[in-house]
Write a structure and sequence with these properties.
The chain has 9 helices and 9 strands. With about 290 residues, it is α+β, with helices and mostly antiparallel strands. The protein folds into 2 domains: about 15-80, Winged helix-like DNA-binding domain superfamily/Winged helix DNA-binding domain (Arc Repressor Mutant, subunit A, Orthogonal Bundle), CATH 1.10.10; about 90-260, 2-Layer Sandwich (Beta-Lactamase). It has a 6-stranded antiparallel β-sheet, with helices on both faces. Helix 2 packs across helix 3. The longest helix has 26 residues, at about 235-260. The model is unreliable at about 1-10 and about 265-293 (pLDDT under 50).
């Protein structure tokens, strides 16, 4: 049924009412009403029969509607109207509104990251005022093996590739809690693979805990990860799993559902790292000189 206010109320001077009505005619068709008569279209769209007829015949001339003389149906050409959006949307574009909803729910910041070489790169981020400093931006990089987002992505790789990455990785400790043993990291990645999420406890920065969940595309391949970082003083490991992980899992499920529909470009498509922000182990300073994330 049409919106009762669709054709009423004040409109901006630029508003083209006839265009609105034409779109309403297209939206009148759905899975429950794949074929409609002229009278049904007029009634559904709250148009006169004469106006509905003009819109329908125009759509027939343009190839968006087919008619047998009585019933009208949409044609596959209607898909062109949405293809421009579907073909241009990127994974960060798709994820951002879901991250905003997540941040509103949990009151903590959240980011979408992808794997680039041996680092993770932030490609979308929604911060909160609870983060003490705002140095993490799109384009910021950190070693994958010490971050929750990096570990959930690395855990999905073949064992041979994991071994190769750990062999060449710089395993210097960033805090006293950082795992630096290849054997310890392999065991942790196996655990992450089994449980489907990663929690990192103050390995990247003292006082910072982070939980992350992988994002899979329509083929089941891990293409990114979403995290929630929190202050260790406010959140125990138990509370991170109990209070934050369920919201994070639900958010990633919604992102994956949209990703299956749109086939959005994944990886770093459409994301440019700020100059100077993507070359170090953070926006400023050497490894270990990091801030709340």
């Amino acid at each position: 049924m049409p919106d009762p206010a669709r054709f009423g109320g004040a409109r901006e001077p630029h508003f083209v009412r006839s265009f609105e009505r034409g779109l309403a005619v297209i939206r009148a068709f759905d899975t429950e009403h794949p074929a409609l008569t002229l009278s049904e279209v007029a009634r559904t769209c709250e148009l006169t029969r004469a106006a509905a007829r003009r819109f329908l015949l125009t759509l027939v001339d343009l190839g968006y509607v087919h008619t047998d003389g009585r019933l009208f149906r949409l044609t596959p050409r209607v898909l062109e109207l949405g293809y421009a959006y579907l073909s241009s949307v990127t994974l960060p574009d798709l994820a951002e509104p879901h991250l905003e909803r997540l941040v509103a729910q949990v009151g903590e910041s959240s980011s979408l990251c992808v794997l680039d070489g041996d680092d993770i790169v932030y490609v979308a981020r929604v911060p909160t005022s609870r983060i003490l400093t705002a140095t993490v931006t799109v384009g910021t990089r950190f070693p994958a093996h010490v971050t929750s987002v990096g570990r959930v992505i690395l855990a999905q790789l073949p064992d041979e590739e994991i071994d190769a990455r750990l062999t060449r990785a710089d395993l210097r400790p960033l805090t006293r809690r950082t795992l630096v043993s290849p054997d310890q990291l392999r065991a942790e990645l196996r655990r992450v693979r089994r449980q489907g999420y990663a929690v990192v406890d103050q390995e990247l920065e003292e006082g910072l805990r982070s939980v992350a969940v992988p994002v899979r595309d329509r083929n089941g391949e891990v293409v990114a990860a979403v995290n929630i970082p929190v202050h260790a003083g406010r959140n125990s490991m138990e509370s991170v799993r109990r209070d934050l992980l369920p919201h994070l899992l639900a958010t990633v499920a919604r992102i994956e559902a949209d990703l299956c529909v749109t086939g959005a470009a994944t990886g770093r498509a459409g994301v440019a790292a700020p100059d100077g922000a993507a070359t170090g182990r953070g926006p400023a300073g050497p490894p270990g000189t990091v801030t709340h994330r």
